[in-house]
Amino acid sequence: MFLYIDPGTGSMLFTILISIFGAAFYLVRTLFVKLKFVFTGGKKVDKSKDRLPFVIYSDDKRYWNIFKPICDEFIKRGKSVVYYTSSEDDPALNYNPEFIKAEFIGDGNKAFERLNVLNAAVVLSTTPSLDVFGWKRSDSVLWYVHIPHMANDITTYRMFGLDHYDAILLSGEYQKRQIRKLEELRKLPAKEIELVGIPYMDVMKARVEKAGKPEAHTRTVLLAPSWGKSGILSKFGERAIDALLATGYKIIIRPHPQSFKSEKEMLDRLMAKYPDSDKISWNRDTDNFEVLRNSDILISDFSGVIFDFTLIFDKPVIYADTSFDKSPYDAWWLDEELWTFEILPEMGLKLTEEGLSNIKELIDKCIEDPSFKAGRDKARSETWVHEGEGAVRTADYLFAKYDDLMAAEEEKKRKEEAEYAALLEKKKKKAEKKAAKKAKKAGNPEKPEEQTINQDKQ
Questions:
Q1: With bands split at pLDDT 50, 70 and 90, how would you rate the model's confidence at 455?
Q2: CB 162 within 8 A of CB 168
């Protein structure tokens, strides 16, 4: 036990090690650029010539619901945006090519190779860990903006996930407080934080109102856990599924998309043991609207889908007691309970391992007890500001930031031109002084200008 390192410290040490290698790489690259500057006669490359005004990067097609409302706002305003995606079948690739210039750039390191040399003014993404692992800040990008893909705690990203963004678009004051505390603890410069709301939830709510109530059906339970060792399927596995099947209700299981990558062996085993039938089904729809709409209750853990279900569809939730391990996440740094776990008891009932045996009673109570609606209303007010205005406010921020950046670039360029002109004047005077000194030493009383004129005449 002498060499034991707790998970939080281990994660920090690993990230620090990666950062050291990254810093060394960029030091070498910076030296190369400076040498190139010298050997090309000190001519500065004008990066603004080929700069893209706006770029959106999506590492998976499932985030199209996040970006589509924002893209629609670009279209409404007659603005174009370059949309890079790491999914070959991303819906963005076939969506309004007049304004949305979508391109598949590969995934993983292949995508990062492109992003790391990107020349753009403003980059918007849901992808965390910028400048932590493979995705590095490009020297030619002026501003990186993060928009979350969930409506709850901003500290449930993997550690250091948002440290190197310039701005974050949030939906609740408590999220802003969490970011500020992390910045204080890590001695980071303050990011720009704009409370814009949640564009994708605005769209889903409008869809709910348009679609109306679903048709009468058998009571349906949706099990939609997060991924990782703290998720329901990792913690409870077959016991949870067996208990749900024993209720006689229709069961839909919708694993987190990352589970199919990081927990494939476990899912393959469960899906083989519980194949699709009239009692149970596995859902992998890219758009989760219909499965949420047609479910009467959600069972989850700390997944952001809890708030999609409860706040948009105004339906009850059962949340699992999975003893959430904060060590891999930014939440580990904060000596406070996650907002999610503070609000959940007001929105629904907790499912413990012992409670699996009476899960049917829990389901029935949550659906039939009206007291949980007050908790949902409270959560909505705390984590969904500017309801219905998310896309408009996001676009407003992006366009205003672009204008500010361009104004700053023009001012910088004007100063550089003035400095360059002053440098040339200084060089000219120095050359004249040197020529005068040389002429005097040679015994020629002519001024440098007269000497030049006489030489031209000859």
A1: low
A2: yes
